[in-house]
Write a structure and sequence with these properties.
Elements: H1 3-6, E1 14-16, E2 25-27, E3 37-40, H2 53-58, E4 61-66, E5 76-79, H3 83-94, E6 103-108, H4 113-124, E7 130-134, E8 137-140, E9 143-145, H5 154-166, E10 171-175, H6 178-182, E11 191-196, H7 204-207, H8 210-220, E12 226-232, H9 236-244, E13 248-253, E14 260-268, E15 271-278, E16 281-287, H10 292-307, H11 312-321, E17 330-333, E18 339-343, H12 348-361, E19 366-370, H13 380-391, E20 394-397, H14 407-415, E21 423-425, H15 429-439, E22 445-449, E23 456-459, E24 462-465, H16 468-476
Parallel strand pairs: 2-3, 3-4, 4-5, 6-10, 6-11, 7-10, 11-12, 12-13, 13-14, 18-22, 19-20, 19-22, 20-21
Antiparallel strand pairs: 1-5, 7-8, 8-9, 14-15, 15-16, 17-18, 23-24
Helix pairs in contact: 4-10, 12-13, 13-14, 15-16
Length: 477
């Protein structure tokens, strides 16, 4: 496609070079190697791609969209006010509005996105050719692709959508992060259904206040993005969103009045069963998932599946057969007759909810292995320390991706919220898990929180191979 045709729907402030240039590919990474591609340049959180155009040129770049002209550069340059704003528009033109050929469902919220989207993917696959995009990867046609982020960047996302259409995919289930909304990664997409799980403290290193974080989520739950919204009104933010959202709203919950709800909830370490009233149809659900927050996730999934025409019996059968979702409340029976649980919980609210649940079903002691990520919201660290200290009989404080931060300072932040002396500090995460196991006895529960299915540990900017499950597997063997 000629460059002049590619940019005809965006506001161009100025340009240098040849608009007749043929563009064969798009990219927003100077490291990409493609034939005759257009590079989108913008200032990111940790880099400015305007500084790497020479690398891009060596990799096949022949034109740039820039926010300021780059001197001593002979590539064609298109000057715009904000690259992120126009990127989706150019992508839609390049890919011939591929997004309109797919039914897209977005799941957003602080916690529960991965569980909700994965369950929905499994159920919708009974009727539709379905794909899943999320924290654990991109899954379709027996393939798994890793992007190391919840929602892929705009250009990567459009390349995926294009490939989905070529592969005859009908439905896309996508986790939508707050960063993806704020950075306009999903601008230009229209979601058939948007699901809101909950909102609690997270990402304040980026959003600064809960108000700004909430407004970001609300932006997604409006007609600009979503035709219909499925909202948890037991969540205080969800209750507010349901009242002011201008899309068609379907509400769900357990405690507050809502359209769709769950009752008669029973659970133990092996799973849960309960009744749901969804669109005035009452039926029983049995799952292999524990904890109250998973009841909410399942409710949202059932509502969306019914709206998309999935039969109740198929929903019930599918939910009963799903054993686990990687990194989300994965239960392992250990040799000493204790139980270990791996979960991604890494926010104060997420930790508290899982600890409340486990405390109720634990027959002996509750032991927790956890830490806090570096280069992220520091304000949540003392809160997480206080919460774990309150509910755990004992805890092992360890590393959880310290990244570029001093791991000892992260621990000190956690300790500032702890009032009891029920902890031990072991920075080596593998050693912390091993010592938690050695400390445990029959009927104890060991919660290993924070990393879930992650396969790395990032320390001083280097990602080392590491997986909580692998450590447990070695123990079990």
């Amino acid at each position: 496609m000629k460059l002049k045709d590619l940019i005809k729907k965006i506001k161009v402030l100025d340009y240098k070079g040849n608009l007749e240039t043929e563009i064969y590919a798009l990219s927003q990474k100077a490291t990409d190697k493609k034939e005759k591609y257009l590079l989108f340049c913008y200032k990111g959180v940790n880099f400015d791609s305007h500084d790497f155009v020479n690398n891009a040129r060596a990799n096949g770049c022949i034109a740039l969209i820039v926010e300021h002209f780059i001197e001593d550069c002979d590539l064609t340059q298109i000057l715009v006010k904000n690259t992120r704003n126009i990127m989706p528009i150019v992508c839609k033109t390049f890919f011939s509005n591929v997004q309109k050929k797919l039914k897209i469902i977005g799941v957003t919220g602080t916690n529960g996105k991965t569980t909700t989207s994965t369950l929905l993917y499994e159920i919708l696959s009974l009727k539709y050719r379905t794909v899943l995009i999320g924290t654990n990867g991109v899954f379709y046609n027996d393939k798994k692709l890793n992007f190391n982020m919840t929602t892929p960047d705009t250009v990567d996302l459009f390349y995926l959508l294009d490939d989905f259409v070529k592969s005859n995919i009908e439905v896309v289930v996508m986790e939508v992060s707050a960063h993806a909304i704020d950075l306009k990664k999903i601008k230009g997409l229209r979601f058939e259904y948007g699901i809101f799980t909950n909102l609690s403290q997270d990402h304040l290193d980026y959003f600064k206040t809960m108000g700004k974080y909430a407004l970001c989520k609300l932006k997604f739950l409006n007609k600009t993005y979503c035709k219909n919204c499925i909202i948890n009104t037991d969540d205080s933010y969800g209750e507010m969103f349901a009242k002011i959202c201008n899309s068609k709203v379907y509400t769900y919950g357990i405690d507050n009045p809502c359209q769709n709800f769950a009752i008669n909830i029973n659970m133990n370490i092996s799973g849960s069963n309960f009744f749901v009233n969804v669109f005035d149809s009452v039926f029983e659900i049995k799952t292999n998932f524990v904890c109250r927050f998973n009841i909410y996730n399942v409710l949202a999934v059932i509502i969306c599946a019914r709206l998309l025409g999935i039969d109740e019996k198929k929903i019930k059968s599918c939910l009963s057969k799903i054993k686990r979702i990687d990194g989300r409340l994965n239960i392992y029976k250990l040799k000493n007759n204790s139980v270990a649980i791996i979960d991604y919980a890494h926010t104060p609210d997420g930790l508290e909810k899982i600890l409340i649940c486990l405390k109720k079903i634990c027959q002996s002691r509750l032991i927790v292995v956890f830490g806090c990520g570096g280069d992220r919201d520091r304000l949540k660290r003392p809160k997480m320390g206080r919460i774990v200290s309150l509910y755990a009989d004992f805890m092992f404080i360890t590393n959880d991706n310290p990244r570029s931060e001093d791991e000892n300072k992260i621990v000190q932040n956690i300790l500032s919220g702890i009032e009891k002396n029920n902890f031990k500090i072991i920075l080596d995460r593998k050693e912390a898990i091993l010592q938690a196991y050695n400390f445990s006895k029959k009927n104890d529960i060991i919660l290993i929180a924070g990393k879930g299915a992650e396969e790395y540990q990032e320390i001083k900017g280097i990602k080392y191979a590491f997986n909580d499950k692998q450590v447990l597997d070695d123990l079990i063997k």
